[in-house]
Design goal:
Two copies of one chain form a homodimer. The first copy, chain A, has twelve helices and twelve strands. By secondary structure, the first copy, chain A, is an alpha/beta fold. In chain A, helix 1 crosses helix 3, helix 2 crosses helix 3 and helix 8 packs parallel to helix 9.
């Protein structure tokens, strides 16, 4: 609805470049023309970019978001973060968190960055410690590191793993497998530990032959299913450490002619948009990314304005988005007993 | 493989904060300690972030990428662009291209931006003109604008629309519909025009009742199928102006109990990663995003170094990724004639 420099030019009877120069008070433009252009701009409510610039340099600082561009989750995090930052007048720079640690540090320390949100750390990463030592405001998002108490906004990965286990057990599954994430991330490790705990509590064994550990990606899910397909003995359900792995599992299962959930039930983790698509209808652990992102931004803003002392990890509770992919077999009523050789009562 | 400040601290027998201070030549650190820390750092090959900083400020400039965060294509563009920019020592800032034009201009002009790549323009947008007038190096990516000859790196949208029409005609479809993109974008308009031209050339009518025009999103595809579902008369195939619309179409069709491609064939546009998933197996027009992004970066770098004169649009050729979603019915051999009331020979 605002006017453009074109409107101002037309109303003032000058060219568009002259409008720009006049509004910058360029002495090459006649004083009388400058005054006319300024007046017309005011009358038309034209906000010059020069005014925008001074407003923005007063209020705007730049935050670097470190992401793993190979994990589809990054786009969801960046989209949400852009909006959370915009609400508090911060801008977003994007930094890919691959490559070596020193290159990453140099990029984050090398000018123009007022704070860092990092979603790619491994448990053993030194980068948070190094940034902290150099006084760079930093918040970890989604994953945390063991090395030091920096601020972090994460989900209850352990609790989510437990929920995933329980929803499969309640559906009647007793022969369970799992496609876990990387052991060197807090998300990979926490989700696996929670899932194992839920099975333990129910006295169900998780056979090593039915677990896979690997990256949080589509290919990892496909590989697990390919590996499983040739076995005589198969689980009725797989817990997947994130939705991207789960989609890889579903996709490869379909390629091999298996039906979901009749031949193989699947539970994911994250609740990406894709999980709700009818083609997947994926039951999954819902991570509250909105509140997680808002918390990360709040912690960062407090840290940037010197209002925080010791680091703190804020852990957000998760829930289950129950769809159809976790169901047992194709029968609507629970099947009480079929041959279940893998069940072992471990606890009384 | 590089050493950390921790390694230097241990080898020099000082604390980590002391290492940082010593390498900054902080006078609060004893001269002898400073020398020892510098020597150990050299011996261990420790690259300080201070050195990283000076290297990076010499060679690095910041490019703003304007994207529409509601269109899933943005993540593909940004991921590719980040890598293309990194190869030439440029950094990426992310700017959401919604909101009003003046806010956007203020953000792009307000400090710290050395060039702009814009993927969100509508045909009538004034923003490219305004940036150009203010001397901000700019390249349009994926979409172009009518208003002025600025540099652009785009795909052959018209040719792609034609290809999509032809692949459906060659599969034997004669009853065709289309879920088009927005009329005010070059991609929406070009793809529609090409598709219409292919049908025209074959003497096939595209009934208005079987065309929908709307945003490039999942919901637009779903809505079209819902609208179609109640009709007595339906097309055997739908051309969708991008893959996200196509996935919405497939998903809603499945929700309604239709099989793809038996009950409804679908062709998309873009060739996103999801198109190749077994759950979709989507035949689609392949846009060469890699070369498009590389061209955009090349044009921008030339523009930033003052090496370019008049604006130029580089149009990249497209191809078809032929999978199974476009096939006619479930029979492997072509069905020569079933009742086809919508066919009209328009040309001899």
């Amino acid at each position: 609805l605002g006017s453009t420099s074109f409107d101002v030019a037309r109303a003032a009877g000058v060219s568009q470049p002259t409008v720009s120069r006049a509004l910058r008070d360029d002495p090459n433009v006649a004083a009388e023309t400058r005054e006319r252009v300024h007046r017309v701009a005011r009358e038309l409510g034209y906000v010059t970019s020069e005014r925008g610039r001074s407003l923005s340099t007063r209020s705007t600082q730049r935050v670097a978001m470190v992401v793993d561009l190979d994990n589809p989750l990054w786009s969801l995090l960046v989209r949400g973060l852009h909006n959370s930052l915009a609400r508090v007048g911060l801008r977003l720079s994007l930094v890919a968190g691959r490559g070596d640690q020193h290159a990453l540090e140099a990029q984050l320390l090398g000018g123009g960055i007022d704070g860092v949100i990092m979603s790619t750390v491994t448990l053993a990463s030194n980068v948070p410690k190094e940034l902290d030592e150099r006084g760079v405001p930093l918040v970890l998002l989604n994953r945390y590191t063991e090395s030091r108490a920096v601020d972090a906004s994460v989900a209850d990965d352990y609790g989510g793993g437990e929920l995933a286990g329980r929803v499969l057990l309640e559906a009647g599954h007793r022969r369970l497998g799992a496609v876990f994430g990387p052991e060197d991330t807090s998300t990979g490790r926490g989700r696996a530990a929670g899932f194992r705990a839920a099975l333990d509590a129910a006295g169900i064994t998780l056979p090593d032959a039915w677990t896979w550990t690997g990256p949080f990606d589509y290919a990892h899910g496909r590989t697990a299913v390919l590996d499983l397909f040739d076995r005589r003995d198969r689980p009725t359900a797989l817990f997947c450490a994130n939705d991207v792995i789960a989609i890889g599992v579903i996709d490869e299962a379909r390629r091999l002619g298996l039906s979901i959930p009749e031949d193989l039930a699947v539970v994911g983790f994250d609740d990406l948009e894709e999980a709700a698509w009818a083609s997947f209808d994926l039951t999954t652990v819902r991570v509250p990314f909105g509140p997680m992102l808002d918390t990360a931004v709040r912690l960062l803003v407090e840290r940037m304005s010197g209002k925080r002392g010791k680091g703190e990890a804020v852990v957000h509770p998760v829930s289950i988005a129950e769809r159809s992919s976790h169901l047992l077999g194709s029968t609507p009523s629970p099947r009480p007993s079929r041959s279940e050789p893998a069940i072992t009562k471990k606890r009384a």
